[in-house]
Amino acid sequence: MTTAPDAHRSAGRPRTAVLSRERILEAAFTLADVRGGDFTLAALARNLDVRPSALHHYFAGKDELIAGMRGQLTTRVGDHGFDARPWHEAIVPWARAYRQTFGAHPGIIAALATLPVDDEPESIIDYERIAAAMSRDGYPVHRIVPAIVAIESFVIGSALDSLAPEDNLRPVDNAELAPNLTRAEAAARENAAAQRHSAVTETFEFGLAALIAGLLAAGATG
Amino acid sequence: MTTAPDAHRSAGRPRTAVLSRERILEAAFTLADVRGGDFTLAALARNLDVRPSALHHYFAGKDELIAGMRGQLTTRVGDHGFDARPWHEAIVPWARAYRQTFGAHPGIIAALATLPVDDEPESIIDYERIAAAMSRDGYPVHRIVPAIVAIESFVIGSALDSLAPEDNLRPVDNAELAPNLTRAEAAARENAAAQRHSAVTETFEFGLAALIAGLLAAGATG
Fold first, then answer.
1. How far is B73 from chain A, CA to nearest CA, in Å?
2. CB distance B178–A128 less than 8 Å?
3. CB-based contacts of A151, cutoff 8 Å, min separation 6
4. Whole-angstrom distance, CA of residue B1 vs CA of residue B24
5. The dihedral of CA B179, B182, B185, B187: what is its sign?
6. Cβ pair B85, B201 in contact under 8 A
């Protein structure tokens, strides 16, 4: 499993803690981890022991709160040397960190993934860093955004996939229906073990390398 | 099966409509589209005007219901000639249909994507068809499942991405922070228009082609 240790336990926090943007976001992650993305601001206020109106000093509404959550996750993903390394190298640790960070909050991945990003400076700065590196490295300008979105879609889908059972494509009850799949799943598991990776990590690394290689080749032909 | 009088029943449906697996699944999709994946069986029973116990003749619990929903979507995705065409050709219309089918039910993508698949013969049969084609075409056996999962992760992430605003990476309020991203986003939009595609479709097609090319190349080297 690749989910990061839960950093959002708020036990021991004094009831009189001063309300802050940080504290609201922390409580929102805790709530979303339990309730999924469709929690209400009223429920969040209840968990924080404040009136709903107190939240409005920090976030005008749910969309703005979700944008703040996404911005904070983007900051946690971090830079990975796009200014100093070729984009196709720096993007590998970026994609790994992105999968881990978003995979730690499965209840809200869908809400985060479909949110408009323009309201969050953190996300815009993150994308700008990647776009600048690709541009500097001569990637065709009209392919830069499609390539970033392709990697992001793969990472988001992989974050969801990493929440499925480790042996998810292993036929058991229906093995007689699927001799090829049964053989292939066993071979993949053996290969991952030989690489000392979990199957889900080996699968992610294989797919990520293939996608980046494919994007590089597509960029070279225009 | 028990039907109770209820003023909120859907208009036009006869009061005595026979409960069936099909009808339950249809109501479950309707409910999930509104409520997301965390609806209860009690709410579903209410929408169908039946007692919760009536649902248990068809689905032992929520997991089994979600498995049934996934199985039905998989059937809608359909076969795309894996027995007659090279896997890397047949997978293109399969991936397009998959994105459209799952993208039509965004509220439940996350639940569907993380579900164990072994309980659904439809999904196992679908994966077996692809695994058999890849095996026949000489794809390395230990790479077959990772390649399928990579494409599926990309498709699921793209289905979520296609729900975001069309111009999602277009900096507006924060354009001054992102000159490279602004240029790249405009170029991508112009290119999509020239191809008479929506930007989201052009992005999906570019990423899918790059991923498949990368997976083919990785398979050729073992």
1. 17
2. yes
3. A91, A95, A208, A211, A212, A215
4. 13
5. negative
6. no
Give, in order, the Cα–Cα distances in Å from B134 to each of A72, A155, A204, B129, B175.
41, 24, 19, 9, 45
Compare A6 and A146 and report the one with higher pLDDT. A146
CB of A217 within 8 A of CB of B213? yes
Closest-CA residue of A relative to B159 is: A153
Show the domains of chain A with their CATH numbers. Answer: 80-220 (1.10.357.10)
**pLDDT tens-digit map of A52-64:** 999 999 999 888 8
Among residues B39, B35, B44, B73, the alpha carbon closest in space to that of B159 is found at B73
Report ipTM (2 d.p.): 0.86
Which residue is it, tokens 């899918």?
Answer: B208
Cβ contacts of B148 within 8 Å, gap of 6 or more:
A169, B127, B130, B131, B134
A190 φ/ψ sector (left φ>0, alpha ψ -120 to 50, else beta): alpha
A86-91 average pLDDT score:
97
Residues B104-118: tens digit of each pLDDT = 887 778 777 777 666
Q: Please list every residue in chain A whose beta carbon sits closer than 8 Å to the beta carbon of residue B171.
A: 118, 124, 128
Least CB–CB distance from B155: residue in A35, A157, A170: A157
Q: How many Cβ atoms are within 10 Å of A105's Cβ, its own excluded?
A: 22
